Amino acid sequence: MSAAGEGRVVVALGRRALTVQFRRAQLLMPTFVLPLMLLAVIASGTSAAQGLRGFPDVASYLGFVIPGTIVQGALLAGLTSGTAMAGDIEGGFFDRLLAAPVRRSSLVIGRLAGTLGLSVLQTTFFLCVGLLFGAHYPGGPGAALAAIALAAITAVAIGGLAAAIALRTGSLSLLQSIFPFVFVLLFSAPAFFPRELLTPALRSVAEYNPLTYVVEAVRGLLTGNEAIGDPWTGLAAALLLAAATVSLATLALRERLRTA
Amino acid sequence: MSVALALWRRSLNEVLRVRGALLPATIAPVVFLLGMTGQFGRLTGLDGFPTDSYLSWIVPLSCLQGAGFAGAATGSNLARDIEHGWFDRLLVAPVPRPVLLVGPILGGVTRSLVPATVVLVVGLALGAELPGGVPGLIALYVACAGFCTVAGLWGTFLALTFRTQQAGPLMQQGVFLAVFLSTAYTPEVLLRGWLAGAAGVNPVTHVLELARQATVSGIEPSLAHTLPGLLALAGMFAALGALALVGLRRLGR
């Protein structure tokens, strides 16, 4: 099939992934509502932290913690795509796709295209809700767009990892049960607090978590202060992670076909 | 009584026979415990924080969270039994209908001991304090068992209302909201804005205070810290129990 034909397959599969997501309200709950609930509680429950010595001078505390919510959304969007893929495998739909005359990698990329679309919608939604509740983004609209793009790449990266697990195991229940580990990735990065104010043990762990650089980059973009986070380092971390996990997913698909 | 015991044993079998069934419900609160402590540990430096160990502040919260999720799972299991038709067969049994709910909720309370204990042990191993001693520990476990019962009734009410496992996330979100719209992260004096108001009227704030007698040095075991928590649990038990019974009465009509 031509490149244009493969592109159409990717778009069609991406659109299907998004449609399924929006037709099943229970899938929207964890991806859209849960991060906002956590944001609301953290923004209000810990805002006294601005009085701590060493806390950066920011225009709004909500604007400071919202990058954590954006990255949490990206993690959940990625995990949801893996869960949906495992559902397709268990339900037999993925086997039917394998019989189609298309490149196999397009099946993975199509699923991840849906994740990318979901993340763009999600991050835009989070930023708008934040704005409604008084968050300021001194970085301006351009920086907000860059933050949306960075979150989308991160969602694809996590989606690649979740797809690799789904393809390797084909187990829906396994994918559902790794939900808590999303929070391991989130909390081992400075998602809601400056890295300098994390406990020493967590600060050491955070250095090795690529999401640290993504969340700091989003924060740097939105606050318009590169001293808080360098956007280019965040972009490099997100791209490297995405390249690694999408390769893993492709390898897992190849392995699945070899052993099937 | 024997029916309730049989159903209690059945709900425990699900845990014993399904490998790893308790793992997510246990891991999630431990992850929250470690994550929250790492992220917000420095908050104890603020004036008005009753302890200088944030881990000690968060341990009871994570214990309640684990117990609450174990309780909410009772609702998910009931919804599954309703969907598969198993509960319809129980309904024709010659026993009072409320008895059919007692066993699974007792099962939830028994299951909740696992996450609560794991969280406590992890917390203590990492340096959480235990100034409340045995009375404090009793208060912590009473709070966990009571909150698990309340969460079980909430899940049961939703299961009987929606009669589908798809209501599962709603059951968990209810527990999540109840726990976090309280003095979860900081004491009431440090809360700002709408959350201060929400925590003031949320009965779980008092349940948390009951539980925190075990690990927070500024909240010593006393009747003043115990009674409000017990009353809050009794109030939630009465309200959600009534709703669950209404749902049960409507089933099959």
How do the helices and strands line up, and which of them pair or pack?
The complex is a heterodimer of chains A (260) and B (253).
Chain A: H1 3-23, H2 25-45, H3 61-91, H4 93-98, H5 104-132, H6 140-169, H7 172-177, H8 179-187, H9 200-206, H10 210-223, H11 231-259
Helix pairs in contact in A: 1-5, 2-3, 3-5, 3-6, 3-8, 3-10, 5-6, 5-11, 6-10, 6-11, 10-11
Chain B: H1 2-17, H2 23-40, H3 54-83, H4 86-91, H5 99-125, H6 133-162, H7 168-180, H8 194-201, H9 203-212, H10 223-250
Helix pairs in contact in B: 1-5, 2-3, 2-5, 3-5, 3-6, 3-7, 5-6, 6-7, 6-9, 6-10, 9-10
What would you note in describing this structure?
- The complex is a heterodimer of chains A (260) and B (253).
- Chain A has helices at 3-23, 25-45, 61-91, 93-98, 104-132, 140-169, 172-177, 179-187, 200-206, 210-223, 231-259.
- With 260 residues, chain A is mainly alpha-helical.
- In chain A, helix 1 (3-23) crosses helix 5 (104-132), helix 3 crosses helix 10 and helix 5 packs antiparallel against helix 11.
- Chain B is mostly helical and 253 residues long.
- Chain B has one domain (2-250).
- Chain B has helices spanning 2-17, 23-40, 54-83, 86-91, 99-125, 133-162, 168-180, 194-201, 203-212, 223-250.
- Chain B is elongated.
- In chain B, 52% of the residues are buried.
- Classes of the chains: A mainly alpha (260), B mainly alpha (253).
- The A-B interface holds A 26, 29-30, 33-34, 37-38, 40-42, 44-49, 51-53, 177, 179-181, 183-184, 186-188, 190-193, 197-199, 201-202, 205 and B 20, 23-24, 27-28, 31-32, 34-43, 45-46, 166, 168-170, 173, 176-177, 180-181, 184-186, 190-196.
